[in-house]
Amino acid sequence: MSSSSGQRVPSYQVAAVLQNQGPKFSFETHKLAIPTINPQEVLVELNVTGFCGTNISLACGYLGPCQTILGHEGVGRISAVGSSCTSEAATVGRLVGVGWIRDACGSCRVCDSDIKDESRCIEQVFSGRDVPGTLARYTVVPERYITPLPDRIPSEMLAPVMCAGVTGYKALKVANIATGAEVYLDFENEDSLRSAVLLKTEGMLCSAIIVCAGAASAHEQALNCLDYHGTLVAVGIPPPASNISLHPLSLIGYGIQIVGSIAGDRVDIAEAAEFVRKELVKPRVTKIGIHELENYAGRVNELDGKLVVRLGPKVG
Ligand SMILES: [Zn+2]
Ligand SMILES: [Zn+2]
Questions:
Q1: Could you tell me if 268 and 173 are in contact, meaning their C-beta atoms sit under 8 angstroms apart?
Q2: Residue 295, exposed/middle/buried by CB under 10 A (0-12, 13-18, 19+)?
Q3: What is the pLDDT of residues 139-179, one digit of tens each?
Q4: How many angstroms does the Cα of residue 142 sit away from the middle of ligand 1?
Q5: How many Cβ atoms sit within 10 Å of the Cβ of residue 299?
Q6: Residues whose CB is under 5 A from ligand 1 (ion)?
Q7: Terminus-to-terminus CA distance in the chain, angstroms?
Q8: Ligand 2 geometric centre to CA of 125 (Å)
Q9: Is the overall model pTM greater than 0.70, yes or no?
Q10: What are the structural domains of the chain?
Q11: 72 CB-near residues (< 8 Å, 6+ apart)
């Protein structure tokens, strides 16, 4: 296969393929055909992809049906451009990211109204759930959802931005608070988080709390630690049957707001990547080859650094 610019694309690729979706899932490395692109799409040759806990939830079947190629933190270069693509972004060689949000229609009432939130597009397409993900050397991206990344930064430093990084960054934007911490509390060592927060802040509570834990109890504890007009930002997803128990008076009495934050759109990714480019954020990563994924996938939460899977011989 050759691209519209004449660049050669090999005849097959290596991908990590999910086997036996369910609690006993595994990954196998397979040789697969290179995906073909339609005139409005580009082909991306990925250098690396991050691997986050959502892949585990998908592999286990907790989030419903999924693709056999998971992954949504890919970084690579456009290697072929569909014949109808006209945008400047659709250029062979451009460094791009492939995140959880794979496409947005741009014309539904969420994308194209005062709501203007493509991360919640009614036609939303998610990577690894609705279309093959980034645990493969090649992937297809619609021209309208190309996500350019800053060049001359190692791909493994940008991969964590594509999901984990941008999700944290977006949650901070939603919470409308500045970054930085003066006090650290370990919930496992506190009988009452509320009492501990009151003690450390001399009688105040939290202006905003971002709950990244996938546990309903974490959301409940957070509600209990919010100050007047405080904001709870829900990010972590508890299992489907886990509901939060709350009495409306806790919202009414304190004027508390609860809001959800999901990944981030292309603007958020570009802003989050700037922190890496300026070296204000230096992701710690554990880099592995695609053949090693089977040994590491179940240990993502135990590693000292974000798991990043190398998809080709070159990284950079
Ligand atoms: Zn839409
Ligand atoms: Zn993720």
A1: yes
A2: exposed
A3: 999 999 999 999 999 999 999 999 999 999 999 999 988 77
A4: 14
A5: 10
A6: 105, 108, 111, 121
A7: 24
A8: 14
A9: yes
A10: 12-160+265-310 (3.90.180.10), 173-260 (3.40.50.720)
A11: 49, 52, 54, 55, 98, 99, 100, 102, 126, 127, 128, 133, 134, 162, 163
